[in-house]
Design a protein that fits this description.
The protein is α+β, with helices and mostly antiparallel strands and 335 residues long. It has 5 helices and 8 strands, in the order ααααββββββββα.
């Protein structure tokens, strides 16, 4: 009886304890809660960016198709010009010969062998003329089809560009709002970490790597996508608002460069020998020297060949300083 009563009291105590905030078993710390809220903010940014990403790469694919079509048109134009020149030359020859009387040519043969040779010659001339005329006709028809396709692609490009601009404006507006939430949560998180004597820097993810953008962002797997000039995409574009901090993914040394394509760029060589490429920066926080993982080295922008209405960080990973690999799975593991 006494044992049964003791069990009942213990059960009531456990229920009351679990119901008490701050004392409950498994209760999450303030830091953990803030980190979860930041993750939710990032998820909100990703959702906002999905529609834009689809429109961006649809337009990019159309631009690549237009570039290829332009090349094919140039080849067809050259082939048509060559065939037309041959046909014009043949017409000039016939005109200068006074329109050869093929029947007289055959009947004036001295021998049967001579007549057969002349007949073969006449047939050959006729076949060559017919083949050249057919080639000119086919090339002209193919060229007309290609030109119609080019015009259709240009109209499609115009529509897609307008849709992209609209979605880009909407995305930037959403990212601005989301970034404000992110900044407020990050400030609280830094304060909580300071109070708990924990470093306020970015939290390393897989392989000790820190996500390269500190703020609200969105990105998708676009490795290998067609780009202008016959290139393919060798990185991941991380969309964020202008001025969003960009951080060192690992500890190492940085060097700043600039180019017409990448704009303001940074190469980070990590202590383990891996290299990381950051492009289209708005400005630098560091241009050279040693940096720590999570340290701000620049800010998201749209320099180089990036579109001003679509600021982003073009990010590449080069294991052991070699060829680029798809950053997407690495980025996903860092979040």
């Amino acid at each position: 009886m006494r044992l049964s009563r003791l069990r009942s009291i213990l059960a009531v105590f456990l229920v009351a304890t679990l119901a008490m905030p701050g004392v409950a078993f498994g209760a999450k710390s303030e830091i953990e809660q803030l980190e979860e809220q930041l993750a939710a903010v990032r998820a909100e940014a990703k959702k906002a960016g999905d529609a834009y990403s689809d429109a961006y790469w649809t337009l990019d694919k159309t631009n690549a198709t237009i570039a290829q079509t332009d090349k094919e048109l140039a080849v067809l134009n050259d082939e048509l010009a060559a065939a037309s020149a041959r046909l014009s030359l043949r017409a000039a020859e016939i005109y200068r010969s006074g329109s050869v009387d093929y029947l007289t040519l055959l009947l004036t043969a001295d021998t049967l062998d001579d007549m057969l040779m002349r007949l073969e010659y006449v047939q050959r001339l006729g076949n060559q003329d017919a083949e050249t005329m057919a080639e000119v006709k086919d090339l002209q028809e193919e060229l007309d089809v290609k030109r119609a396709s080019a015009l259709q692609l240009q109209e499609q490009q115009s529509d897609e560009a307008a849709a992209l601009k609209k979605k880009s404006d909407a995305l930037q507006k959403q990212l601005n709002s989301i970034q404000s939430k992110y900044n407020a949560l990050q400030a609280k998180l830094d304060a909580a970490r300071k109070a708990a004597n924990k470093p306020a820097s970015a939290k390393p993810g897989a392989n000790g790597m820190v996500f390269p953008v500190r703020g609200a962002y969105t990105y998708s797997d676009t490795w290998g996508a067609a780009r202008s000039g016959g290139r393919t995409h060798k990185g991941t574009d991380i969309m964020a608002k202008h001025g969003t901090p960009v951080v060192a993914i690992m500890s190492g040394t940085v060097r700043a460069k600039s180019s017409s394509l990448g704009g303001l760029t940074i190469w980070l060589t990590a202590d383990n020998g891996w290299a990381f490429y950051y492009a289209h920066l708005q400005s630098y926080a560091r241009t050279s020297g040693r940096v720590s993982a999570g340290e701000v080295i620049g800010y998201v922008g749209s320099t180089g060949n990036a579109t001003a209405s679509a600021p982003h960080l073009h990010f590449e990973i080069h294991p052991n300083g070699g060829a680029a690999v798809n950053p997407y799975p690495y980025l996903r593991a860092m979040e």
